[in-house]
Amino acid sequence: METQTRTSGADVAALGLGTVLVGSLPAALLTDHAPERYTVEAVFSRRPERDEVTEILGSETRDRLARAGYPTVELTVSDRRLVIANTNLEELRDGLAGVLANRLAEITAGVRARQDAAALKFHDAAESEQARAAAVAALAESITFQVPASGDPAAGAAKDREQIDSWRTEGGHGH
């Protein structure tokens, strides 16, 4: 049984950043009145998934930025944009952009790995359940309501009970 459990995965590109939204920059840049730090908006390469957004905004990302020398930088996500506060274009050019790109690649890989593991677990559980259902059907079909030609009817029941007990340990229902 083939089941598709998600639309993301190997066929979806890693989350990255494209261009800076120039229109969102302070108008006074490159003048005597330019602010030292400001907010820069960058466009994601695709819409981030919910798990990716959670990790972008999470403490691990803040810790990584601080360890890389950017303790005052703050990130938020607005639709398909990464809003990078307390920075400037020079800081992004000189290293922050690479730190952000690496972190986004790590986040994508981690989210994909967790999604793939969950999909595999679901697939395995579905296969196990299908095998269990087939075994139940086979057992039900093996029942005949007639008097045994010879011997002890309890011997056949004991053999059936042994088979049923072995199925219970296979992990299907209730696990």
Task: Show the helix and strand layout.
Layout: E1 17-20, E2 38-44, H1 50-56, H2 59-67, E3 74-78, E4 81-87, H3 89-141, H4 153-168
Antiparallel strand pairs: 1-2, 2-4, 3-4
Helix pairs in contact: 1-3
Individual helix count: 4
Poorly predicted runs are: 1-10
Oligomeric state of the chains?
A: single chain
Percent strand? 5-15%
**Helicity, as a percent range:** 40-55%
Order of helices and strands: EEHHEEHH
Task: Characterize the main sheet.
Answer: 4 strands, antiparallel
Distance between the termini: 20 Å
Could you tell me the number of beta strands? 4
Overall pLDDT confidence: 84
Radius of gyration, in Å, reads: 29 Å
Class from secondary-structure proportions: alpha+beta
Q: Biggest sheet, strands in spatial order? A: 1-2-4-3
